[in-house]
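To: structure subgroup
Subject: Chain for Friday's discussion

All,

I'm putting the inputs and outputs inline so they're searchable in the archive.
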Amino acid sequence: MAVAPALGTGKSPQPPHLIKPPRLQPGDTVGLVTPASAPFNVHQTLIEAREKMHNLGFKTKVGKHVGEKWGFLAGSDMHRVEDLHAMFRDPEVKAIIAIRGGYGSARLLPLLDLELIRSHPKILVGYSDITALAVGIHRLTGLVTFHGPVAVSTFTDYTRKYFLETLGNPQPIGEIEDPPYERNLQTSNRVWTIRGGKARGRLIGGNLTLLTATLGTPYEIQTRGRILFIEEVGEEPYDVDRMLTQLAHAGKLQECAGIVFDRMPSVRPATFDPAFATNLSIEEVILDHVEKLGIPACFGLSLGHVKHKPTLPMGILAELDADKGRLALLEGAVV
């Protein structure tokens, strides 16, 4: 079994060639797993997850250990990675979808059977804590993984459209449209251009906390010449500042071709007992870090912990038009 390289080798693994997984077609079976935390109400959540996948046109197969719980984790590391491996190995399963995020996906990275994943490439989808698996697996195997909804996400028409098109269509998706707005006379995505211009590069990104946690490990995010997308939830602005500072110290921001930030609607000073009496807004924090980079960058796309979100493939060629606040996928992510 080929597992992830251990620390202390003095060498960073070379990026492997890109592997695109087979596309997801109507009637296919998707595997449901819990690589991070367990649902609080397991039975109701599982009913919801399966119902949503069935309504999208897919059959479901549930991991053997789904429903287990060990504190804040969905069972032991060995049981969670066993479910993941079983889904990659199962010929009936065409895509693997996390039921939810939470915490704990990064604990599985050293246990992954990389040769199994390379030899049985499949769609892997999730966001938030699942960023650890999406980035780590892409880094060490070259498999195109997907930042997208978990099984119990809100599948609006917009989310559903990009989930099905990105995972089911071998052709390029092209420019990602604005999500719909229903109130306050809002008719555009209201994206703030930090620095204008266009950039092309392979897409990489996810949740900021998890991206930062890869630094100094074999799963370290590679940003050179890439378009980096970042989302975060529930943190205060100083937390985001700390993580962006760490990425900058590691040279990761400076290497990017362009950067796209989610709207991060929940990133703000705490309502009760904030960390500091005076504060910076999330816009001020991002401007301070990004403006000096001299690369196309924008803030305000709908990418993370929001109900309308596209499915974004890691490693696929993309173009950012920061003046228009638009991101386009220039090649298909599946075969």
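Points worth raising on Friday:
Confidence is low (pLDDT under 50) at residues 7-12.
Residues 60 and 183 are 36 Å apart (CA to CA).

D.
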